User: Fold this.
Amino acid sequence: MFNQIKLSYSYDALEPHIDTLTMETHYAKHHATYTKNFNEAAEKAGVSDKDVNLILTSLDSIADEPLRKDVRNNGGGFYNHNLYFETISPKGGGEPEGAFKKLIEKNFGSFSVFQDELSCLSIGQFGSGWGWLSAAKDGSLVLSTSANQDNPLMEGKGLIPILALDVWEHAYYLKYKNLRPDYIKAFFNVVDWKAVEEKYDKAISG
Assistant:
């Protein structure tokens, strides 16, 4: 059975950057629904005993097209939201430190350039979707976006997401209305860079 990650902070802990009602609705309703639907679809597809990463990187193995779509959408929603909530916290914000900061500087020139590039990509994502920072097989960092509940695992390029920026309207509309750029600016105040670095270390060691 696939389970939502347990939040290590309360719904109001990310105020004023992400409001309490958005957090509660996002986690307890949207994420909970994706998790429930993914478990049901995975059971029907006979893949409920597999790791979610393996499922999302081998979707073509599910022959039934409607069922494959169901697993893709809800499995993506489950995985994406787990990563999103795991890499934000009230201890977040600022810049990464040490080796991970140097890695960002090596790949993007500076942290501010990285921040600007991820922001621009995410603002420009048409409709619902995500902005991503991923680890490549060679240890480099890659920025990208995806629509709906897709993610880099599904693209077959060997990328492993380590930071997820949710730009579905449900992630920000209650507080920021249609001002996605304001939400993205606020998002960087809650990114837990230690958690992101841990995701990176795990990705490249696997």
Remarks:
- The mean pLDDT is 97.
